[in-house]
Amino acid sequence: MKTAAELVVQVLADAGVRQVFGISGDSVLALIDAMDRTPGIRYMPVCHEQVGTAMADGYARVTGRPGVVLAHMGPGVCNVVIGLASAYRDSSPVIALTGVREKDRIGRDSWHEIDQLALLQPITKWRARISTADSAPRLMRLALTQALSGRMGPVHVELPKDIARVESDVGPGEPIDCAALLEASRVAPNPGLVAQACDLLLAAERPVIMAGGGILHSGASASLAAFAELLPIPVATTNKGRSSIPEDHPLCLGPSGRYGTPFADKQIKQADVLLGLGCRFSDLSTRDWTLIAPETKIIHVDIDPKELGRQYDEELSILGDAEMFLQAALKELKKRDRAKPLPGSLENHPRVGALIREREAEREAFFAPTAHASIPGQPHLLIKEIMDTLARDAIIALGSGLYSRFAGRIRVTAPRSYLKSVGLGAMGWAFPAAMGAKLAEPSRQVVSLLGDGDFMMVMQDLETAVRENIAVAVVVFNDYGHGSIREIQRREYGGRIVGSDYKPPPFHEIARVMGAEGLRANKLAEVKPALSRLLNSGKPGLLEIAIAPQPL
Asked: The pTM is what?
């Protein structure tokens, strides 16, 4: 006989969940106690539920497996909203496990009570209340299935405080194999539409691929590279699709749109056929839907039927998993005489060679010492120092701040190595997401790059990083205020700066007080040795870089 709480925890442990992030409360004590007594899983307390949710999200994005956050009823559940909304917008499989009042007190406006299922309904793809101990394993297994199948996303399960301690003779069931579940839930594309897509691409003069987060979710990076090389077709990425192809690959154009490069934007504008793979054609990746020309023929492949044809009139709309589409398209192309591997290197292909030269020239100009001379501090040079310090497979968690348009130029080359709250654009996300990523990949460098305002929302959880020895490197670009907002006020509100300037504390000193490494770089030459010291310390550390307020 096991209690409902023990059954919930056992299902998670059997599915490979190794830690659950959260904050204690009396409504979740049965779950915490069960974790302590269940082999293979542990409870990791944090200082704020928003942090726990973002840690679960970062873990999920790097592994492709569910991340789990635990929240006490009422206020605790309110605190997971930002994290779950970010996971929902970016299709990340996070499971929110929450406590709730005793079953017979629900709906009576008891202390701490809110309608938690209704609160989280708009930002979860599925939700349930465990009303009986017997139903606990079934609903938790269903939660795992819902989070991982189709278009991934966060789910919410709440367990009443009294039901959590009720015993049941129902077992946890066969362990869920998350990898097998992902394979079983793949949707195969229509073969006829795949053939039509190949016809359009072969007939095109200037085809371009736009790779989104669906490539990473389906594990299709290798197939994407093979498909692009066979034709060959250059590949731009959305912000969420970054790292789906190495950004130094001969065919990679880099990210497009607001956080991308003018070079990638130009190639999309000139495309006569655009193949969108696992992307939404969002406002960010298309610069408010201005990049794709009206005459461009769009082929759109996505796992979510609601996204097909949502933003543009499409030549072909194909429902299917990105990996299955690419595999089917590769087989189809290999039947065609015109689709043959290129002799020699890709660089020898006239179009590819020209694109590489233009891409590298644009990048060299961006990072030139004399570039951006009008911007105080020239943060592009700081970013170059950081970029030159990181390992090739380093994981970067990018936060908010005026510097981010420069930090976004760091090339990422390994799949699932670029983390950002893209759809929601949440502050207070990057640092905890980096902690979750480091727990998932302890042997890889993990660096969080963020502004002072972003970091101050979650800086208390340096305590979590120190206590758990999560060796992330946090780089805080301190421009003494909300820089982006400050510059908008200067430009659009007559220069009146209201509420955007403040005096942050000495972050490097706070880091040391909390037990982490704490360094400050006052000169460009100090950045690389300071970051190297953090990365080699084997403990959490913070590097504060002071940069002057700068124009947009």
From this structure: 0.94
